[in-house]
Amino acid sequence: MNIDKLNEYIAHYLYEDKTHSAIMLTAPWGTGKSYYIQNSLIPFIDTEEERKCIVVSLYGLKEVQEISKAIYMEVRAKSLIKKSEKISAGKLICKTIIKGVTSFFNVDLSMSEDDLQKLYESIDLAGKLIILEDLERTGIDIIELLGYVNSLVEQDGVKVLLVANEREIIKYDKKEIIEKDSKGKDESKTILVLSEKSQRYLNEKEKSISDTIYYLGDIKGAIKNIMVSYDNPIFNLLIEEEDIFGECAVASEIYNEIMQDKNINCENLRSFIYACQKTVDIFTSVSNKVNVDFAKRTFLSIVAFSLQKKQNDNLQWDSKLSYSQKLGTYKYPLLEYCYYYICFQMSCPNEFKEAEKNYIEQQEIQKQIEKQNDCLNIIYYFYDQREVDVVNAVKNVKELLKDINKIYPSQYGKLSNYLIAIKYAIGNNEDADECKKLMLENIPKANGDELADRLTYYNRFALEGEALIEFQAFKQEMLGLVTRKQKELFNFDYSVEHLDDFCRNIYANCDSLISHHAFAIKIDNDKLIKLFMNCSAKQISEIHAIYRSIYAPTNINEFLSGDLDSILELKEKIEHILRIHAFDKIQIMQLESFLTAIEDIAQKLQGGN
Hints:
Strand content: 5-15%
Shape: globular
Number of helices: 28
Largest sheet: 5 strands, parallel
Radius of gyration: 29 Å
CATH class of the largest domain: Alpha Beta
Structural class: alpha/beta
Strand order of the largest sheet: 2-3-4-1-7
Helix content: 55-70%
Number of strands: 9
CATH architecture of the largest domain: 3-Layer(aba) Sandwich
């Protein structure tokens, strides 16, 4: 996501928008919405002369009057802080304390509610951006809250940015329906339908919120910036290393290897900050004198544990050893010392240094093992080796591939390239083919989302002729396994009978489709048009709803711009069937409504508002 463009868009809303409506920023929990607001948006909007952003958390609030009070207190707190800076530079002013001490503001809370409301309404919010966070966590009735927001933006001309995890607001109910099976017999089926409250929410939202922005934060950038903010000497060393793409290597590894780990699957930045703090505390206890590689492994294991702890705060030590792969990862097991420090604040720096000593000794032993069993190095430099050594190395790799943890699938792109080169160089067909077979068996067991790029980017040995053809075919076969889930999602026979299942699958995977940058381009428009000819008005409306949901974010062109040609093609085909096919008037109304939506989508994908 282009953060600069997002900042500019919100600034344009604040200064130029005349719609008298609010905007919404939505994303799953922990993806960095609050971090973005505090560390990017507010510094971009606020100036030295004026604090323009007023941030209020709706978490725990029970009545809309409390929002007015919170806004009033926030404005007064910012005003007092600004004055205090001029009087006593360098003195820390705690807004939370200030807001709790009403004498600072000369506010008499014994006043009537009506008088307090008038007081709250007396502040000038012109040129301010009211940021209401945690919409999904509020105790206020969501319909009443949106009515309050509508009053702010429509009647008072206030600019409001709502921040939410909208997926936690929109809920579905189970509904039993009776359908005919292939033999004409009644068959009970359970479907998901939008709850009544969620439908009312969407209706009310349409009145008060003009644009919804789907936020896919720069998680790797945030990881690096958080580490930088600690100004820890070991962290500073870790963030200096860059990967082959010029990005911070440790941030990329944390995101790709830990946050995306199938057993963790969590991108919560609050948990990452928690992990940073615990790690820095441990490093500080030994005066930051730690072997850098051991420090990195300790840090990444704590990150893995903290992300798991976020989802289950009752994790127990599970190992008879001094480390646990389950509480960390296979590559970065959690030290027992770190577990007890994090969970029970038990600090014993000598134990940590002993663990470091043991690690260094084990690394030396591992280096010796690698010298004895260097089959991968022989394969990657086969052109300098003896034939017999190369043959034996391929046999050893075949044995290693029988355990996915011995050679992880992220290496398969490079490995298969060299194995095929060896196959055509010395004719070692059987073992090389067996290695390929084992790789294909292992790939579905790995995290597919992180493998697609890795199977493509690697140091390649130049191939020619049949060897090149075989490698390209095998690479496509590997990539095909990685993207099978995406393909299965679109394995739709375009029949009326299976339309409901298709719609449910698309809704369930909406976020994934956006993040993978493809939807309309994967739809067969000709088959979709034939489906329309057999659809009821309600079914046409359901297809319309799918497209509306996928392309709802205002900045969708950042993710699905490649869909534009397919969308324009669909527009032309709908216009054509409206001219030639005999639809009833309700069906025509639904198709014309869908056509209008398609035109709006095309405009969005072209970068329009």
